[in-house]
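Review form for a predicted model. The reviewer records the input and the model, then writes brief findings.
Reviewer: anonymous (R2)
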Amino acid sequence: MSDIKAIFTSSDDASKKWSSDELLQYIKHTLPPEKRVLLEQQMLEDPFLNDAIEGMQQYKTEQIMQQAVFTINTNIKDRLDEKKRLQKKRSFKDLPWIALTILVVIGLCVAGFFIIQQYLKYMHKP
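Model under review:
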């Protein structure tokens, strides 16, 4: 959320980063013609950018759109924080049970070894 103005970036160095202000200007038909052509070319190449602009056009006012973006960003942050918290909690919670299981299996192997040794000694006695 640090660079909220540049919401669309591409892995291509040649592609332009479009700010939310520029996208709003495009929707309001106030973007300069040369930038408008460049944006429309990128929309043809990038279906995500095209879908995003179509989604932005569905909002009645800019304020409603900004509220929706804020809500989405908040929900994403909350979900990621919850997922990290659960992963951290789960990793420490399961550790003692894993160690106990390993110790029990090793103990059973050692006990089985001694039982088999005693049985073999008993069977070889005349």
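Findings: The first strand starts at residue 6 and ends at 8.
Further findings: The chain is about 75% helix and 5% strand.
Recommendation: see findings above.
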